[in-house]
C-alpha cells in the first residue's frame, strides 16, 4: 500500500512537471510568434484598435521594423527609432520627446511583447476559441507591465494583447498584418511633419 507521504510526493511532482511543461509550451508559442514577426525584417504594417481607461477607444495603423515603429491614430502620431519616441498630439500641437518604458511603448506598439517575454516573466498558456492565450506575469513587482495576455493564432500571428499597468487594463486588437518593405526614415521624426508644433523634450 502506498504511503501518504509517497502519494503527496507524486502529486507535487505531477504539479511541478505540468507547470514546467505548460511554461515551456507558452515560451515555444511566443518564440514562434517572435520568429514570424522577425521574418518581416524589411518591415510590416497592421491595423489596431485600443481600449482602456487611460486611452478610451481609438483605432489606427502601425508600421514596424525590428524594434522601431510608427503609429498613427486620429489626433496622434508616434515615431520610435528604437531608442527615442516622439509623440505628436494635434489637439495641443505639441511633440513630446521621451525614452518610454515597456508599458508606455506597448500602449502604442502591440508588438513590444516580443522583446520582453524572454526575461522577467512567468509564462502559462491555455487554448481559447482555437487560439493560444499566453499569460505573462511579472516576477518583480516593480516591473512597469505586471501582466500581459497575448492571444496568438495557430499560424503564430498575434491578434490581441491585454496588459495591466497598476490596476488599469488596456486591450489592443490587431488585424490585417502585412509584410512589405518600409523605409528607415519612416521611424524618424522630422519637424516638417508637424509644422509649427512645440517640441517638449522630457528625456
Word description of this protein:
By secondary structure, the chain is of the alpha+beta class. It has one domain: Lipoprotein localisation LolA/LolB/LppX (outer membrane lipoprotein receptor (LolB), chain A, Clam). 20% of the residues lie in helices and 42% in strands. It has 2 helices and 12 strands. The protein has helices at 4-38, 102-106; strands spanning 44-52, 56-65, 68-73, 76-80, 85-89, 94-98, 121-128, 131-138, 147-152, 158-165, 168-179, 198-201. It comes from Prevotella lacticifex. InterPro entries: LolA/LolB/LppX (IPR029046), OM_lipoprot_carrier_LolA-like (IPR004564). Keywords: Signal.
Strand content: 35-45%
In whole angstroms, the N-to-C terminal distance is 68 Å
Structure class: alpha+beta
Q: Enumerate the strands of the largest sheet in spatial order, edge to edge or round the barrel.
A: 7-8-9-10-11-1-2-3-4-5-6-12
Shape: globular
Biggest β-sheet, characterized?
A: 12 strands, mixed
Give me the CATH superfamily. Answer: Lipoprotein localisation LolA/LolB/LppX
Overall pLDDT score:
84
Could you tell me the CATH topology label. Answer: outer membrane lipoprotein receptor (LolB), chain A
Percent helix, as a range, is: 10-25%
Low-confidence stretches: 10-24
Number of domains: 1
Question: Over all CA atoms, what is the radius of gyration?
Answer: 20 Å
DSSP E strands, number? 12
Keywords: Signal
Protein name: Membrane protein
Organism: Prevotella lacticifex
InterPro entries: LolA/LolB/LppX, OM_lipoprot_carrier_LolA-like
